[in-house]
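Today's session is about reading a structure prediction critically. Students often jump straight to the picture, but the first step is always the sequence itself: look for stretches that repeat, for charged clusters, for runs of hydrophobic residues. Only then move on to the predicted structure, which in these notes is written as discrete structure tokens rather than atom positions. Here is the chain we will use throughout the hour.
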Amino acid sequence: MISTLSVFLQGAIFLSFLLLFLGMVFTFLRLMKGPTLPDRVVAIDLFTSLVMGTISTYAFLTGLTIYLNAVLIMAFIAFIGTVAFARYLEKRALK
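Below is the predicted structure for this chain, in token form.
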């Protein structure tokens, strides 16, 4: 499907991939630096969102919508993980 896309659209997709990768690099640095556990959890959540954006962009580029199922599952798992962490912090704060 790449050959049927216009030059402008191919450039926009390439730029999207570049910016998503750059975001992943900075998010990974925040994940390693921390300094607190909530900072790291937010970084993991952002990293998951960036991966979902990358997969969605690739699905658009190739025209294969099957990848969007993986994005949907990743979004659900990331949401459950964030809610579980919030409940953990809430219970820890009550003690």
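Discussion point for the tutorial: The chain has a mean pLDDT of 91.
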